[in-house]
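Run log, item B.
One chain of 245 residues. Sequence copied directly from the ordering sheet:
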Amino acid sequence: MDLGLRGKRALVMGASSGLGHAIAKALIAEGAQTAICSRDQSRIQAAAKELGASVALVCDQSEPGAARAMVEKLLASWGALDILLVNTGGPPKGNFAEITDAQWQASFQNLWLSAVDAINASLPAMRQGHFGRVLLVTSVAAREPMAALTVSNGLRAGLTGLAKSLSQEVARDGITVNCLLPGYTDTERLRELGIAPEKITALIPAGRLGKPEELAALATFLCSEQAAYITGQTIAVDGGYSRAH
């Protein structure tokens, strides 16, 4: 199937490793002109060389205004942007009583406001081209809270509400807005949380961890011409882990 992505201009945030890296790889394989970003210059440049990405950008999403400035810089160079893939690192682990005010503020900036800034900066060009794909990678925690991930549970759920609302505002402009909810996937983030894989897989009907490439395949389809009638959706990619509808 030709997904119609050849020549489309895409920005994948948080792409030096993990899910963002896998999604960028899949988009590039489909012929999309792809820019990638992360906060670490050496890592994002190495990723760009490995993937064959068109542009490697440094963006610390925890810095106010950084995401907007990055998108504006890219637009100044490219003149247009067709696909925005919003992806951020996970917030700190902890129960509600353990999270400090400073951690809440920093996570709100990194997880929420950076997404808003990037979307705001991208929409005018998408409207002008009457084509746009905004895809937010969040977590199954947005639908079914996970123990000791209070910050992620709260803020990511808010992003799904934002995406649903925005999708209704921009649908007539040829722009879709969707959320992907990865479950337990074999990435660096999972290892950072210090969770034993064997304990997790026992809870997953598929009996294994997810692969980044599996989520990337769905993300790539949702960015395609064929997915033009899919918007305002929140789709879990979790091997059947979440029970909530």
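Observations after the first pass:
- The longest strand covers residues 175-182.
- The chain has a mean pLDDT of 94.
Flagged for discussion on Thursday.
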